[in-house]
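Long-time lurker. I teach an intro course on protein structure, and each term I like to show students one example going from raw sequence to a predicted 3D structure in token notation. This year I'd like something fresh instead of my usual example. Would anyone be willing to generate the tokens for the chain below so I can use it in lecture? Attribution to the forum is fine with me.
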Amino acid sequence: MDAVWTDGVFVVPDLIADGRWPRWAPAAAALGVGSSVSVHLFTDTALGSLNLYSLHLKEYTHTDLEAAKVIGAHASVVLAHTRTERNLWQAIETRNVIGQAQGILMQKYGLTAEKAFGVLRRYSQQHNLKLAAVAEQLTTTRTLPGWARADSDTHPTTS
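-- Reply from a regular --
Happy to contribute to a lecture. Here you go:
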């Protein structure tokens, strides 16, 4: 984690002799790890670190460290792409659920799409709930969170 917080490369040629990680190093050495290199992974935000381990004590060369940085750069790009793609699919799914919730309100109360979205938005703000959570609840139960069944046919506030 030190590589993440300092945007750096941490080289540990001898885990036991290093002393920076008094709990982790002996545990890793007991598993057979002798040395390590950690490279900060990032694009526009910190993504983590790539930790490379050797079973032997090793004095890493400049070439070793440059290779680790290149591998780290490639891993950063892949992780950033994966994160972006996941976020886009999540946004699409959220938008679909919100659209479905709007449709339920439009059908049930005769609202326009704009007014139905306004109802969802206001309910979300007034109850300190994420809009997606309100929409998910509405599409699953056909009622807004916290609405009693007896009140479910009451026209929502649209102003």
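Some talking points for your students: The chain has six helices and three strands. The helical segments are 2-6, 15-18, 24-30, 62-109, 113-126, 131-141.
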